[in-house]
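Sample intake sheet
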Amino acid sequence: MNLQEIPRVKDITKEDFINLYFKPQKPVVIERFIEDWPAYEKWNLDYIKSVAGEKIVPLYDDRPVSHEDGFNEAHAKMKMSEYVDLLKKGPTKFRIFLWNILKEVPQLQDDFNYPDFGLKMLKGLPMMFFGGQDSYTFMHYDIDLANIFHFHFQGKKEIILFDQSQNKHLYKVPYSLITHESIDFSNPDFKKWPALKSASGHKTFLKHGEVLYMPEGYWHYMKYITPGFSMSLRALARNPKNLSKAVYNLIFMRYYDNIMRRLYGQKWIDKKNRKAINRTNSLAK
């Protein structure tokens, strides 16, 4: 794959962010933007355990999508204190995905500010993500195609991004937000997935305190090199095409896919995966 390093800046003004990255829809890593947040010093796994240890958290792993699973349905649950202990013990596939911990632990809202990047943040949707060593998310994009600001805490995380123009190379699964789940984007097998050789994207590694801006609808794959966690803040898509696609995803695509799963079970999942392979390989020829 043709992956370019995501540009990095130490800090940035609102005007420069809008003109250099938001308007052209380009990703950027901002390295020192949150050093004045209390979270910069306080937020680590031990602190999260101390303030949220008794909360029951939803966990996900890297098992293939099954017709028996509901949309974003958790694979397991446990207390946050037990999960932090699990992360420290060694590699684990379990991740926390899209957990609004700030609703359950309101005191964490005192540790950060909603940054002024010139976009209106959705203040009711701060989401947190945790992962153990070597755990990863499937390559996917968010259902609302939002502008995402991804703040990383503790540890190191590998990130690979593609914009929507690369769909024809990525083995996108129909009626879903993911690519074929068998692809290891950290080390892709080009004999099995030849179209990926033509994909052009971006890559970086995030460390504690760094912020990644992901433009509207960007595909993202994230792998935890070491145990850690992140928080995402989002702003609605501005591009009319992306807004209409978000409405389609939310109102039609998600419910249609769930209905087909109930009607046809695993046959529907398998059919979509085959179509992703056949369609992508035919376009690559």
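Comment: The first strand starts at residue 2 and ends at 5. The CA atoms of residues 171 and 278 lie 9 Å apart.
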